[in-house]
């Protein structure tokens, strides 16, 4: 009887062992390594996705910062120009031509230097805004302004245009760095189109 019990026991162990082998594949070093590689690849994919999202967010933030810096610089420049306008003494000028279609104005003591000259032009533009003339030109040299009014010059080669530092025309305010280099100023009612 003991022999039968031992045989039955061994037969049960063998049967259980066979059933367990069918349920799970044999564990080998290759299978463990392969599953670890798959797990690491999935983690890397998720990390890359998160990194791509962070880079995209960083790019958006950099653009916002750049736009904010531009706005701050623009506001700072506007503040300096307003301070400059309010601190300027009353402008000394002489009207050379005063017609409905055009005004030509000579200004004495126009400061040199683009920034100072722009501030001077802004004050002049504020002073002459709303006048009837369709075109108002601002000059720093009286004889050039007079020559311009008389029309006694060659329009292509006349150097006198260099003393015209500003112009209001069609609700646009233009600042002339030189006769060929113009900036449309955005100030108050003057909005570049």
Task: Characterise this structure.
This protein has 4 helices and 6 strands. The protein has helices at residues 2-23, 29-87, 114-128, 142-150; strands at 93-98, 102-107, 135-139, 164-169, 172-178, 181-185. By secondary structure, the protein is an alpha+beta fold. 16% of the residues are buried. It has 2 domains: 29-87; 91-185, no CATH class.
**Count of the domains:** 2
Order of helices and strands: HHEEHEHEEE
The total strand number stands at 6
Ranges where pLDDT stays below 50 over 5 or more residues in a row are 13-22
Main sheet specs: 6 strands, mixed
As a percent range, the share of helical residues equals 40-55%
The overall average pLDDT, rounded, is 83
Topology (elements, then pairings):
Blueprint: H1 2-23, H2 29-87, E1 93-98, E2 102-107, H3 114-128, E3 135-139, H4 142-150, E4 164-169, E5 172-178, E6 181-185
Helix pairs in contact: 2-3
Summary, kept brief:
The protein has 193 residues and is of the alpha+beta class.
Quick tags:
2 domains, 6 strands, six-stranded mixed sheet, alpha+beta
């Amino acid at each position: 009887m003991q022999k039968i019990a031992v045989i039955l026991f061994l037969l049960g162990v063998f049967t259980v062992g066979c059933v367990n082998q069918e349920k799970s594949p044999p564990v080998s070093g290759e299978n463990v390594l392969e599953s670890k590689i798959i797990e690491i690849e999935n983690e890397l994919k998720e990390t890359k996705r998160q990194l791509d999202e962070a880079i995209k967010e960083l790019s958006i933030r950099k653009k916002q910062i750049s736009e904010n810096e531009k706005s701050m610089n623009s506001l700072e420049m506007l503040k300096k120009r307003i301070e400059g306008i309010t601190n300027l003494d009353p402008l000394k000028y002489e009207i050379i031509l005063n017609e409905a279609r055009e005004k030509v104005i000579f200004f004495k003591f126009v400061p040199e230097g683009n920034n100072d000259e722009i501030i001077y032009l802004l004050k002049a533009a504020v002073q002459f805004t709303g006048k009837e003339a369709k075109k108002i030109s601002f000059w720093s040299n009286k004889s050039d302004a007079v020559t311009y009014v008389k029309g006694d010059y060659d329009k292509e080669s006349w150097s006198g245009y260099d003393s015209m530092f500003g112009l209001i025309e069609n609700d646009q305010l233009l600042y002339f760095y030189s006769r060929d280099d113009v900036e449309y100023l955005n100030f108050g009612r003057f909005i570049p189109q």
